[in-house]
Amino acid sequence: MDYNLFLKSAFAYIENRVNSEISMDEVARVAGFSTAHFRDVFRGATADEQEFPAEAPLPMLMERLMCQIDAQTVVGEGRWNAGLFLKREAERFPEVGSSLRAGADYLKKDG
What we know:
By secondary structure, the chain is mainly alpha-helical. The protein folds into two domains: 1-47; 56-111. The protein is 72% helix and 0% strand. The chain has helices at residues 4-15, 24-31, 35-47, 58-92, 97-108. Helix 1 (4-15) crosses helix 2 (24-31), helix 2 packs across helix 3 (35-47) and helix 4 runs antiparallel to helix 5 (97-108).
C-alpha cells in the first residue's frame, strides 16, 4: 500500500499546529491509523532506500531529507519541552518531585 497520502495529511496537520500541543495519537488518527501502525508506517517510509534512489533529482532528495530533519526536530523539541514541564511540576508537587526530576533527566538523554 502507498502510504504517502496518509503521511502528507499527518504532516499537514503537524505544520498547521506547530505552535500548539501535538499528540502522537491525534496525528495517527488524522492519518487514519492506530498510533503503533503510524509509527511503523513512518519508520518504514524513512528507512526505505527505494525512496532515495541514487538517480533521483536533488530537489526530491532534499525534500525527503527535510521531512526527516523536521521529524527529528519535532521529537527533540517535544522531549525538551516535556523535560521543562516535568521540572516545573516537580517544584509545584514536592512530594513527587524526585520522580518528576528523574523523568526530566531521562528526557535530556539522546533517545
